[in-house]
Write a structure and sequence with these properties.
Chain lengths: 206, 290
């Protein structure tokens, strides 16, 4: 039988996602290098420590802009509904591999992750600009810069932990990576994980 | 290269021990504000010895020039007018790095070896390792380090570590015409200060005292102040300087928390996968696994 596929992400959406992802990886590596003395050598990701200091914020701006595009693509898909609350409350059951609720395009966990990422991105942008010594930090009082540095590191850690969960969820739920690489998912995948979205896309009763 | 002096108490962003074989005597510079005449010879000597030249600025209506510390001006005289005990007082303070025993710049610095604290108490910036992030600026409780716009390296008073290393006093000390700046072992400087303070008290300055703030573990640049109870009078010298709680959280508690959080996320994924196993759509989803 020929595999039945549904388009989940268009090519521009996929490019957009991977621009953000590549920026994130570079930023996380260089950021952790600035955060953990023992991992300072990770600044080598940008060549030299000085270059890492110079390039990191620019890559951050690119990530923010690319993420902003994603925000406007997806925010309306991520409004929390009672069905999502039910999902979040039954997360233990979900972790066993049993789906809970009539899930649309995104489940409660994905929506939670979306808003966590939005919050982290906003904090990272604002605090990152304030702490950007070469151009902006001089315009702010030192106590504000200190708060920005603390907020920047905290939001980065939250985002890194969040992205680990994001990546793991994609690895765990087989057939998901394909959605962001080839753009498609199988009917079986959609039916199991996003039944309401499956019905919307196919017009079938499931 | 600096590590060969074998008297390194701390090195920025270095989690392991530094070469500490030698234990030189702890030094200090004592600035007696009450005998300073504001001649700025110390500024000139600093500029001469360290071969740094701040641009000649313009008069801003007061004697302060340069008006602030810069990458090319590691010490500046700050002039403050105040009224104490019904009298006008002109308080002149030579500002610059305090060489804290607990240096906020070093705590904040992310680059290994960009900031070195010698066992004699001198906190020195090694620009070869400086990456220009400016964390030291945020870490310092005294607002001292300055980033050079020319090379994006941080600069500040080195307490003439090169001179001290060969048994000489800092350039500002050598040049001071009134003896308001003295240099020696920290112990000796405290003694010199106590004699001076007793004299000031005799002359009616009841609150004269030594500025060697505990909050940063003491400093290796100390002031004799006529109004030690009100250090803010001296162009906002902080009363109880300490490494900011924000910086301590950022460089302290947040690190183990971050390690825990990131490790928890990673380990959770790993163990979840090897216990629960992958979530495959091809299995009939009505059937739940028991």
């Amino acid at each position: 039988m020929k595999e039945q596929l549904i388009q989940r992400y268009s090519a521009p959406e996929r490019i957009n996602h991977w621009v953000v992802a590549v920026c994130f990886v570079l930023l996380a590596i260089s950021g952790l290098a600035f955060f953990y003395p023992a991992f300072f050598w990770l600044t080598g990701v940008f060549g030299t420590p000085q270059l890492a200091r110079i390039v990191h914020p620019f890559v951050g701006v690119v990530m923010f802009l690319a993420f902003a595009r994603q925000f406007f693509r997806y925010w309306h898909h991520n409004l929390i509904t009672p069905e999502d609350v039910k999902w979040m409350k039954s997360v233990k059951e979900v972790m066993k591999g049993n789906e809970v609720g009539d899930i649309g395009k995104y489940n409660g966990g994905q929506k939670g992750m979306f808003w966590l990422m939005c919050a982290c991105m906003a904090v990272l942008l604002v605090s990152g600009l304030i702490a950007w010594r070469q151009y902006f930090a001089g315009y702010f009082p030192i106590p504000v810069v200190r708060l920005a540095l603390l907020a920047h590191a905290s939001a980065a850690v939250a985002l890194i932990a969040g992205i680990i969960v994001h990546v793991y969820a994609a690895l765990w739920v087989k057939g998901t990576i394909r959605a962001m690489v080839e753009g498609v998912v199988t009917h079986a995948w959609a039916k199991k994980h996003h039944p309401r979205w499956y019905r919307e896309m196919t017009g079938k009763k499931s | 290269m600096a590590l060969q002096s074998l008297d390194i108490l701390r090195r920025s962003a270095t989690p392991t021990a530094t070469p500490q074989a030698r234990t030189p005597v702890e030094v200090a510079k004592l600035i007696d504000v009450s005998t300073c005449i504001g001649c700025k010879a110390c500024q000139v000597a600093c500029s001469e010895w360290n071969d740094i030249r701040e641009e000649v600025g313009s008069c801003v209506g007061v004697y302060d020039n340069p008006v602030d510390l810069t990458a090319q001006a590691w010490t500046v005289m700050r002039f403050a007018e105040t009224e104490e005990n019904g009298k006008l007082e002109w308080l002149i303070r030579k500002d610059g790095c305090m060489h804290c025993a607990d240096p906020g710049c070093l705590k904040a610095c992310p680059s290994p070896g960009a900031i070195i604290q010698y066992k004699n108490g001198i906190v020195d910036f090694h620009q070869e390792n400086c990456i220009g992030c400016g964390y030291c600026v945020a870490g310092c409780p005294f607002n001292v380090p300055r980033l050079s716009p020319a090379d994006n390296k941080a600069y500040k008073c080195s307490l003439c570590s090169d001179r001290v290393a060969v048994g000489q006093e800092p350039a500002c000390v050598k040049t001071c015409p009134t003896g308001a700046i003295q240099f020696g072992s920290k112990e000796d400087m405290k003694e010199v200060a106590s004699v001076r303070i007793a004299d000031l008290k005799n002359r009616g300055y009841q609150n004269a005292g030594l500025y060697d703030p505990e909050g940063v573990g003491g400093t290796h640049v100390m002031y004799v102040l006529h109004h030690a109870d009100k250090p803010e009078l001296y162009s906002n010298l902080p009363k109880d300087p300490a490494i900011s709680a924000t910086v301590s959280l950022w460089k302290g508690l947040l690190k183990p928390l971050a390690t825990l959080g990131i490790a928890a996320a990673g380990l959770f994924g790993f163990f979840h996968y090897i216990t629960v196993g992958p979530n495959r759509p091809d299995e009939d989803h009505e059937e739940t696994r028991k």
